[in-house]
Amino acid sequence: MNYIAAQIEALRNELHQHNYNYYVLDKPVISDFEFDKLLKKLQDLESQYPEYFDENSPTQRVGGQITKNFITENHQNRMYSLDNSYSKEGLIEWEKRNIKLLGTTSISYTCELKYDGASINLIYVNGKLSKAITRGDGYQGDNVTANIKTIKSIPLLIKTTNFSDFEIRGEIILPIEGFNKMNQERIEAGEDLYMNPRNTASGSLKLQDSAEVAKRPLDCLLYQIIGDKLPYKTHFENLEFANSLGFKIPDSMKVAKNLDEVFEFIDYWESKRHDLPYETDGVVIKVNAIDFQKELGYTAKSPRWAIAYKYQTEQVSTKLLSIDYQVGRTGAITPVANLEPVQLGGTIVKRASLHNADQIEKLALCLNDEVFIEKGGEIIPKIVGVNIDARTESSKKIAFISHCPECNTKLVRSEGDAKHYCPNENSCPPQITGRIIHFISRKAMNIDGIGAETVELLFKNRLIYDIADLYSLTESQLLPLERMAEKSAQNIISGIATSKEIPFEKVLFAIGIRFVGETVAKKLAKHFKTIDNILKASYDELVSVDEIGDKIAQSIIDFSSNLNNIQLIERLKQVGVQFKLKESEVQITSEILKNKIVVVSGVFETLSREELKRLIELNSGKVGSSISSKTSFLVAGDTMGPSKRIKAEELKIPILTEHEFIQMLATSIRRLR
Ligand code: AMP
Ligand code: ZN
After folding, report:
1. 477 belongs to a structural domain
2. Whether residue 508 sits in one domain with residue 488
3. Which of 63, 288, 356, 591 has the smallest number of Cβ neighbours within 10 A?
4. In this predicted model, what pLDDT tens digit does every residue of 593-602 receive, in sequence order?
C-alpha cells in the first residue's frame, strides 16, 4: 500500500471509530469541530485521488445518491412476523406449548423491548455492509442501501473476525425528540405535520434523495443476528457479540431464567419505557438457546420460539367541554378540544388535537361526549374514540364552524385539502401577527429582542401591520408601551436594523410563502439568485428545479400574483433587506476540484451535461474539451464511445462513473440545491 492509500485508510478507520463513539456509545472523544476537520481532510484526499473511492467510506454518510425506483430483492432468510399476546396468560400458554415440543421445563429467555419503527435486514459480506433490505412481504423487500448508509450508528465496516458474513436485523427508529423537531420545522413552513415517529421512520427509508435521509435523525436498534455458524449458543450472547462488533443493541435487553422473570421485566418497563428517547409498544420474548430455537422452528407466519407481548396503550376517558378553533399564519384552521382535566401518562391533560373537520366528522363528536384519549409520539394527545352509550338525547353534534372565529370571514376548503382556511389574509389578525412572528423567528430573520408577545403588543397598538412596518419603528414609538424599558426598546430597534444583513435564502423563508420551508427556500435562492427571478418564473421553470413540485410552484405563483405581496417586497427592498444572493455565494461552493481539468463524455442519468459542467466550475475545476495528458479525470456517461475510453486508459487517466463523481461532490451538490 502506498503512502496516500495508507493515509486515506487510516483516516477512514479513525472516522468510523469516532462515529461509533458518538452514535453507538454516546461517548464522543473529540469535538464536532475536530471531527469535521478530519472528515474534510478525508474528503479532500478522496477527491484528489478518486482512484481510492470506496462506497463504505465515512464520507458516504452524507448521502447524495438519487434512487428513482427501489429494486425489489429476495431475502436469503425469510423475515417472519411475530405472534402477539396481550396478556400474561397468553405467555403461559405459549410456554406450555414449547415445553411440550422441547420435552423440558427449563427454558430461559431473552427479553427485549419491542422498538416501534420499520424493520430492516442488513447484509454484511466480508465485514462490509453490502445491502440493506426492507421487510416487504417477508419474502422480498426493497433495496434501500444508499439511504441506510446515512444512518450513522450503523457500521459500514466491522472488525473482521472469522464471522464476517452474516445478516443482522433490526428496527429503524426515529427518536421522539428528533421527530418533534422535524414537526416544528413543518409548522414553521406552514406544512401538514408528520403523523407519528413510526410512519415517518418507514417513510424516510423510501425517500429518493439519500441526502434528505441523512438530515433525519434516524437510528437503528438491532435485535437478531443470522448466520450459518453463529458464534454463541444463546441469542443473548450473540447479541452481545453483535454489540462488540459495533452494532447498537439497547442495554434494556435481559436474560430471564423463567416466565416469572419475564413478567418482572414486563412490569418494570410498563411505565419506565416512557422515559426512553424512542417509542416502544411491547416486549419481545425469545427462547434463549439457539438449539431450542431450531427445534421449535416456525409456523406459517412466525417463529414458535418468540412472541411479542403488547402493552395496552394507555387510554383514559374524560368529558369534551368545548372546541377552540385556532387560526394559523397561513389561515389554516385547527380545531382543538378542551377537556375536563384528566391524568394521562404522568401529566394532566386539558386539551387534545383534532387536526381537521374530517376527524370531528369521523367520530361524529357531540358536546359533552365522553371521549377516549391516548398519547402517541405527538406533543399533544389525541381523541381516539367516543363512548356512544353515554350519549343522551339532548347531545348536540358539533358542527364545524363556517366563519373565521377571529375576523368572521367565510371559510374556504379547496378540493383535496384536509383543512379549512380563512381567506382574509390581509386583515385577519392572527394571520397578520402570525406572519410577523414567523418573520422574526430564529431560523428566519432572527431578530433579537422581539418575541411573539411584543409582536402582539405592537399590533394592538397599531404600530405594525405587516413585516415591512418593523423597519420604520422608532424608539420613541416603543417607549410609551407597557413594560417597555429604554434598553429593550434600543435592542429591538438595533435587532431590526441588523436583520438587513440576513442572507437572501433566509429572507425568502422569512416572508412566509406557503410550502416554502427552509430547504426549499435554499434551493430556490441558489437556483434563481434573486427574488425578481423567482417571482417572474413560470410554472414550468419552477417545477424544473430539483425537488420543486406542483404544490410549491403553484403556491409561489399565487403569491406573486397578489399585488399586496409585490408591494410588500418593494418596501422591504427599499429599506435594504437582502433579496439577492451575494456575489460570493453565487460563485464558488468548494475548492474540491482546484487545479483539476475534468472531461465529461456521454449521456447521464441524474444530471444533465450542463449541470455537470456547472458543478465542476462551482467546485473550482476546469472543464476540458478533449482527453489529453493534462486531463485529471474523465466522467463517463452511458453512451461514451469506446475510442475515448481506450485513449483515457492509454494515458492512465482515471475514469469515474456519474455516480462516483456525484458521491465525490455530494457535499457541494447539496449546497447547490
Ligand atoms: P409485527 O409487525 O407485529 O408482526 O411484529 C414484528 C416486528 O416487530 C418485526 O418485524 C420487527 O420489525 C419488530 N421488532 C421490534 N423490536 C423487536 C425485537 N426486539 N425483536 C424482534 N422484533 C422486533
Ligand atoms: Zn380570519
Report:
1. yes
2. no
3. 591
4. 888 888 888 8
pLDDT reported for residue 455: 95
Q: How far is the CA of 223 from the centre of ligand 1 (A)?
A: 9
Q: Residue 225 CA: which ligand is closest?
A: 1
pLDDT of residue 589: 64
Q: Based on the domain organization, do 188 and 298 belong to the same domain?
A: yes
Same domain, 158 and 221: yes
pLDDT of amino acid 26:
86
Task: Look at residue 673 in the predicted model and tell me its pLDDT.
Answer: 43
Alpha carbon of residue 622 to chain centroid? 36
Strand partners, 385: 372
Neighbours of 324 (CB within 10 A): 12
Residues 6+ apart with CB under 8 A from 187: 193
Whether this prediction's pTM lies above 0.85 is answered by no
How far, in Å, from the CA of 420 to the mean position of ligand 2? 11
Bridge partners, residue 66, by sequence = 209
Mark whether 303 and 443 lie in a shared domain. Answer: no
Q: What cell numbers appear for 516 in the block?
A: 416554502
pLDDT at 670: 54
Give the CA distances from residue 174 to residues 65, 144, 198, 204, 383, in Å, rounded to whole numbers and listed in that order: 21, 17, 7, 9, 23
> Which position among 68, 88, 114, 596 bears the catalytic label?
114
- Residue 170 β-bridge partners: 120, 222
Residues near ligand 2 ion, CB 5 Å cutoff = 404, 406-407, 409, 422, 424, 428
CATH number of the domain bearing residue 655: 3.40.50.10190
Range of the domain at 15: 3-62
Which of 232, 234, 334, 263 shows the shortest CA–CA distance to 90? Answer: 263
Distance, in Å, from the CA atom of 449 to the CA atom of 457, rounded to the nearest integer, reads 13
CATH number at residue 332: 2.40.50.140
C-alpha–C-alpha distance, residues 642 and 650, integer Å? 12
Residue type, position 199, single letter: N
Answer whether residue 583 shows pLDDT above 60: yes
Shared domain for 376 and 304, answered yes or no, is no
Check whether residue 360 and residue 455 sit in a common domain.
Answer: no
Ligand nearest to the CA of 428: 2
Instruction: Name the domain count of the chain.
Output: 6
Nearest CA to 433 out of 408, 409, 462 is that of 462
Q: Enumerate residues lining ligand 1, CB below 6 A.
A: 81-82, 112, 114-115, 119, 135, 171, 223, 284, 308
Q: Are residues 204 and 261 in the same domain?
A: yes
Of 343, 359, 390, at which residue does a domain stop?
390
CB 191 within 8 A of CB 417: no
What CATH code is carried by the domain that includes residue 509?
1.10.150.20
Q: Counting beta carbons within 10 angstroms of the beta carbon of residue 498, is it exposed (0 to 12), middle (13 to 18) or buried (19 or more)?
A: middle
* Within-domain flag for 180: yes
Answer whether residue 413 is part of any domain. Answer: no
In a domain, 364, yes or no: yes
The three three-digit cell numbers of residue 421, written as one number: 382556511
CB 216 within 8 A of CB 154: no
Q: How far apart are CA 500 and CA 467, in angstroms?
A: 13
Task: Say whether both 51 and 155 belong to one domain.
Answer: no
> Could you say which of 295, 310, 325 is where a domain stops?
310
- Tell me: pLDDT of 107 over 60: yes
CB 624 within 8 A of CB 651: no
pLDDT of 196-205, one tens digit each?
899 899 999 9
Handedness of CA 520, 522, 527, 531 (dihedral sign): positive
